[in-house]
Amino acid sequence: MEVNGSVSIIVPVYNEEKNLPLLLEAIDQALSELNRDSEIIAVNDGSSDGSGEILDELSNKFPDLKPIHFTRNFGQTAALSAGFEHAKGEIVIPMDADLQNDPRDIIKLLNKMEEGFDVVSGWRKNRQDKWLTRRLPSTVANKFISWMSGIQLHDFGCTLKAYKREFIQGIHLYGEMHRFVPVFASWQGAKVTEIPVNHHARKFGHSKYGLVRIVKVILDLIVIKFLVDFAVKPIYIFGGFGLLNFVGAFLAGCWAIYLKYWIGDSFIQTPLPLLVVMCTLIGFLSILIGLLAELMMRTYYESQQKPTFIIRKKNKS
Questions:
Q1: Are residues 294 and 196 both part of a single domain?
Q2: Does 221 lie in the same domain as 155?
Q3: Same-domain status, 283 and 220
Q4: d(CA 310, CA 317)
Q5: Based on the domain organization, do 251 and 130 belong to the same domain?
Q6: Are residue 208 and residue 274 in the same domain, yes or no?
Q7: Higher pLDDT, 28 or 216
């Protein structure tokens, strides 16, 4: 299956002034081997060094380069989101600006996409990072994400990926959710695969990532799991929790009656009556929250005319 179409390269940039000239030269060389229209969208995420000025200068040398400058540092997710929003290519490929991703792998991603895939994710199989602070936490996080999402990838954190445009349109990213774009795409019906890509040790600058990011990733994954599974019918989770509390109240009540009439323990001798009241109240509140959430989600979809489905193709009637 041949995949044609223009290509947009998205590069989030934060304090990478020494890497940018080499990176843009390598990207331009890789794109010159493609017989496609292309563009490079470099999003300056409020850099405090000379990255912004260098991008503007390089845009004169590379006509395909389109710099975007943020007013301050909003984070990698925001930078990628802005790049996705401004990209015009039919295939969108984000990559890091630190020269650890290899621009020559762009061709490998596109070749793999020609086999019929909608998303091709890079896998830094021989990752050139510190084992304790980067590789070990990443391995744990990747296994957890695969288990929670059902999407089996070795390296969700690798920025270098290729997406068909239709599967990232309308995706709004927050927090650290940029690494979950393949999950969003797969849940919308995209065919996702993974290929090994090159990974180089950082030559200039320093990493902006820390161990605290693992906690953020886990919390964001919980949010995504909830949105995907229950955004259309939130009553299922809130109502289910409410019904579970009603069952707990019923069992606690039966146990309290058994203790009183068969064992001889008074109601005031056990916390069971209090547990019955508490579970009953929580059950009613949970169902009420579910009903309110249902009204909010219906208003959200209907007011913005958002569809609850995606059509891949349509035959003529």
A1: no
A2: yes
A3: no
A4: 19
A5: no
A6: no
A7: 28
Is 313 a domain residue? no
Domain hosting 26: range is 7-229
Residue 44's SS3 state is: strand
Q: What is the CA radius of gyration of the chain?
A: 25
Q: What percent of the chain has pLDDT over 90?
A: 45
Q: Which of these ranges, 61-70, 77-86, 183-192, 216-225, has the smallest mean pLDDT?
A: 216-225
Residues 255-303: tens digit of each pLDDT: 999 988 888 788 778 889 999 999 999 999 999 999 998 888 778 667 7
Among the candidates 182, 209, 229, a domain finishes at 229
Question: 249 near 276, Cβ under 8 Å?
Answer: yes
User: Does one domain contain both 248 and 212?
Assistant: no
Considering only the C-alpha atoms of the chain, give the largest distance between any 2 of them, rounded to a whole number of Å. 90
> 201 or 25: whose pLDDT is higher?
25
**Co-location of 195 and 293 in the same domain:** no
CB 163 within 8 A of CB 119: yes
Report yes or no on 223 lying in a domain.
yes
Clarify whether residues 100 and 14 are in a common domain.
Answer: yes
Task: Judge residue 217's burial from the number of C-beta atoms within 10 Å of its C-beta, 0-12 exposed, 13-18 middle, 19 or more buried.
Answer: buried
| pLDDT confidence of residue 150 | 78
Please say if the pLDDT value at position 132 is more than 90. no
Q: Which residues contact 101 (CB under 8 A, 6 or more apart)?
A: 95, 122, 158, 159, 160, 197, 198, 199, 200
Q: How confident is the model at residue 117 (pLDDT cuts 50, 70, 90)?
A: very high
φ, ψ for residue 163, nearest 5 deg:
-125, 140
User: For the residues 18-27, what does the mean pLDDT come to?
Assistant: 93
What residue has token string 């891949």?
312
Describe the crossing of helices 235-258 and 272-303 by its angle, rounded to 10 degrees: 170
Whether 315 is in a domain gets the answer: no
